[in-house]
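go over this:
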Amino acid sequence: MQKTAKSSSRWNNSKITVLLLLLAPLTIFLFSLCVGRYSIPVDTVIKILASPVVPMEHTWPSIMGTVIFNVRLPRLIMVSLVGASLAISGASFQGILKNPLVSSDILGVAYGAGFGAALAILFFPDPATIQLFALGFGMLAVGLAYGINSFYKRSSTLILVLSGIIVGAFFSSLISLAKYTADPETKLPEIVFWLLGSFASVTISDVIQYAFPMVLGIVVLLLLRWRINVLSLDDMQAKSLGLNIKRYQGIIVFFATLITAAAVCVSGIISWVGLIVPHIARMIVGPNNSKVLPASIVIGMSYLLIIDDVARCVVSNEVPIGVLTGLIGAPFFGYLLLRQRVGWS
């Protein structure tokens, strides 16, 4: 009888947790539409959002509709997608590399994409070219990391991680070289601002262009979450279950890299999200990757939406979002280490 009561209590707690995780990003998204330099009441925001499909009298100034549809809605959709992408890619890398201290940056993706963007700003300062270079060099960085790893007859995740660190350091030096050679009056501030991370220039065309690779990568990783569970086991155990380790590792790394590079293309380098969000998810739902990945998506969306609200509202000049994620992420990760909560259990 007592066991039945405990089981029922756990089931109810689990349902409440799922409900809260689902409601959190929706509530924060609606709140984020309301706040900013030009605040709009929540009931007006709901009416504006419903107006294209529900016939109603427009009782609000036209500027409010412009702010919602042309400025805040594209921006917040992209913030949500980037938060979800960085979080699920970090959780996936931690799962297949069996290391809770790695993130999507570990294979040099962010620094490769950052150098690609800096190079384009120097020589081809067109927004589409900047994003294309960022995506191309992000993928190149991962290719180099795997290329170095392939030189070893007995390659391992440790060597792959070290290869990623080498590639990341190499592209970081190239970024410094690009900044050193940039015009200090025009190009240098543009490179520095882009590298700090921001959603200030996001438009609806960015959403259309980058939503597809991000959503595709997120869906594929979600479908493979059970495989990631198996890959997080010992290699012998994974093989005994009939899993082709190399094939699935390659697929997961490709899509995790794709969505990370697409995120960096839009927003610049935003650190720590892919590292700390999976830990928060693990603290809430446990170590099972079939739950950690979906939880990381909603927590990543909620986390980055809150950070973006702070970046937009705290001071008159928008704070680069990469600065805020670093200021919050580093102490929080230190707190997790002190509490010895970083791990799989």
